[in-house]
Design brief:
Length: 210
């Protein structure tokens, strides 16, 4: 059994890096951000640019903040804020014990920094392969990898993973502690959503493709 597992928001936290950086970038433009509100909007599907507009930031300023945010989001300092979810390691160990072959499939701008982060978090040993696609064409890139695998499915926290799975005709198993809420994923067509990767691992044998 081969499965793909997303990285940001699935194995590691997404909120702290994204929201701390957003607040810092917005401050450059004299814009104060309620990060709790911003994160709740993002969890329900808003892009960074859209959530800024939704909280009253002028359109041109929102666009510039969004550009600056994207430019800085993968720099080493901000990446250092990422932490593993509490049950990520136990989930990976549990899947490995079930003889599940795992590929880490994620979208990042900088593959070198991604691989460095994975080494620092001591995750590499759990994956037979680490595949990085462009965040600017993540759905297309991930679906191509899923088609060529072959994979039974992908575990992920966003509609990008969901849509990639649909395009590749494989299963999508959602987790809801990351960038998108369970409600949002279900409204986009996700049939199975777990709170965390650990809860997915515990139910894995019950949700195998038939």
């Amino acid at each position: 059994m081969n499965i793909a597992i997303d990285f940001d928001g699935t194995l590691i936290t997404a909120q702290q890096r994204q929201m701390t950086l957003l607040k810092a970038v917005a401050k450059r433009y004299d814009v104060e951000i309620d990060v709790r509100l911003a994160w709740s909007l993002k969890r329900e599907g808003a892009s960074t640019k859209d959530l800024l507009a939704n909280i009253g930031v002028e359109k041109a300023v929102a666009a510039q903040i969004s550009i600056d945010w994207m430019h800085d989001i993968e720099t080493p300092y901000w990446l250092s804020l990422d932490t593993l979810f509490a049950d990520s390691i136990s989930a990976l160990e549990g899947l490995a014990a079930k003889d599940v072959a795992m590929t880490l499939l994620t979208a990042r701008q900088n593959e070198y920094l991604l691989r460095n982060q994975i080494r620092q978090l001591k995750l590499a040993k759990y994956f037979r392969e680490i595949v990085c696609v462009s965040p600017f064409s993540a759905e297309t890139g991930k679906s191509k990898v899923l088609k060529e695998g072959p994979f039974a499915g992908i575990v992920g926290d966003s509609e990008t993973d969901l849509n990639a799975a649909k395009r590749a005709n494989v299963k999508f198993w959602g987790v809801s502690m990351g960038q998108r809420s369970a409600n949002f994923l279900r409204t986009r067509g996700a049939e199975v959503v777990f709170e965390t990767l650990g809860k997915f691992e515990k139910e894995f044998c019950n949700i195998l493709p038939r």
